[in-house]
Design goal:
The chain has 118 residues and is an alpha+beta fold. The chain contains 4 helices and 6 strands; from the N terminus they run H-H-E-E-E-E-E-E-H-H. Helix 2 crosses helix 4 (103-117). The N and C termini lie far apart (29 Å). This is DUF1801 domain-containing protein.
Length: 118
Amino acid sequence: MSNKAKVDEFLDKLEHPLKAEMKAVRKIICEVSSAIEEDVKWGGPSFDYKEPMATFSPRVKDCVAIIFHKGELIKDKSGLLEAGPKGKAYVKLASMAAVKANKGKLQAIVKEWMKVMG
């Protein structure tokens, strides 16, 4: 089974109040570059570019929570990233309106990650 198929299967089986929003965020992230790879790791869909970039946290139910593993390295001009412990940073989107409104900001964060990773 391909990694994309594993992520498709994971999301299809997932019971989450914001599953549609999570699928939309996945699409937004993957649209940035065909070099971004997907897998299911650490309990959720994950994205890699040269090394682990970000992972959904489906245990969080009141929003779509995306953990950027080395978020402290990202120069975020949007204010969308929230600092977390151990160098991580989070993006939290609580509705489809928030997902759509922040598409450009989220893609800018992903592009910045790719730039940092060279």
